[in-house]
Amino acid sequence: MALILSYFLSTSSLYAQGQTDEEILKSLGFDFVLDSKALVSKKNAQGYYELGLGIAVDQSCFKLYPQKEIAVIFQKMLVRGLSCMKREERGENVKRDLESFQKLLSNKSNLSKLECDKPLPDTAYAIGSSPGSSRRHPYIYLSNMGNKEFKEKPAFFQGVVFHELLHNIRYFHHPDDMEVTSACEECCFGEMTGDKKLSACKICGGAYETISDPEYIKSLLVWDGRFYGRLIVEEQFDKALKDSAIVKEVQFKEAMESFLKDLKSPVESKKALEQVDRLLAFEFEAVEKELLAMPETEISNRYRFLYYRLMAMAARSQGSLGLEKTYKAHAEACRDKYKNS
Fold it and tell me: What pTM value is reported for the model?
C-alpha cells in the first residue's frame, strides 16, 4: 500500500507551464476522469465491474488490487497518461488521439473491458483490440504470467493498460503503424532516461507523420535498438536478398548497428534479455572479430554474414535444426564471397 501511495503522489508534479496533471485534464475536458465521487465498482449485466471511467474490469483484476482501490488506480493511470501525452504534444496526431480517448471513455454503452488473468502467448504481457478487429471491441486482456510484476509495480501495470487503451483508440505496431503504443508506455510510465526516453517521447508526442520518415526510424533505434533494430533488419532482409544495394542503405546499416550495439551490453544485463536475444548476444561476441576483419568495401557480404550467423543461432535455440542448417550454409557462402574478393 505504501508503494502505491508513494507512486500516486508523484503524479501531481508541476510541469514547465505551471500546470498540474489535473489542470491539464480539466483544460482538455476530461473532468469526469477527475471526479472521485463518480468512481464506482458496480457489476453490470455482462458480469464486469464498471469503474466510472469508461473502463470495466472482471473479477480476476481484484486478484491484483483490492476492489475498493482499483478504480483509484485506473484514475491515476488516466491522469498520468493523458496529461503526459498533452505535455509531449509535437503534432496534430496527439490532438486527434486525445479526442479519440474522449469518445472511448465516454461511451457508456460500450465500455473498454479488461480481464486480468488470460492465458496469452509467453511473449505477450497483454493484448488490446483495435477498431474493427473484433465484435467484442474494445477489450484488453492481461496475461496471467505477468501477475507478479503487475502487483509489485503499479507503474508497470498502469503503463501496460494505457498501452492497450491506445490500441483501443486506433493504433497498431510498427511496421504496420507508428509505434505510439509502446512509445507512450515508456515515455509516460517507463524507467528509461536520457536520449532513450527523449526518443520515445518524440514518437509518443506525434513528432513524425509517417513510418518511412528517416528521423522516425532513428528515434526508434535510439530508443530501443535491440528490439527495433532487429525488427527493421528482418523486415528489410527479404528485399536485400533480391537486391544487394538495399544492404548498403543507411537505414539497414543503422538498424543492424543499433541492434548490435544494444546486444553488446554488460553480461549482467544479458540475464534480463529474452532467451533468444541472450543467445544472439553471445553469438555476436563470438563472431565480432571475424566481422571486423572483413573489408569495408564488402559491406553487403559483411552484414549478410552476420545476419545469417545470428539467425542460425536463433533457429537452434528454437529447435529448428533444418532452418539452422540453411542459415549456416548462407553464412558460409557470404564468408566465401568476401574471402575470395
Answer: 0.72
pLDDT digits over 110-168, tens only? 999 999 998 887 667 899 999 988 888 999 999 887 778 888 889 999 999 999 999 99
Instruction: Give the CA count within 13 Å in the CB-facing half-sphere of 336.
Output: 6
Helices 299-317 & 250-263 angle (0-180, nearest 10): 50
| Report for 22-36, 76-90, 132-146, 240-254: range of highest mean pLDDT | 76-90
Q: Which long-range contacts (CB under 8 A, 24 or more apart) does 240-244 make?
A: 240/304, 244/300
Alpha-carbon torsion angle 288, 192, 201, 280, nearest 10: 30
Spatial strand order in the sheet of 49-50: 42-43, 49-50, 55-57, 112-118, 139-143, 126-128
Q: Supply the angle between the helices 250-263 and 230-242 in degrees, to the nearest 10.
A: 140
Half-sphere exposure of 213 (CA within 13 A, CB side): 15
Distances in Å between the Cα of 125 and the Cα atoms of 71, 120, 141, 158, 204 are 21, 7, 9, 12, 20
Closest CA to 165 of 180, 178, 148: 180
Give the span between the Cα atoms of 159 and 146, in whole angstroms.
13
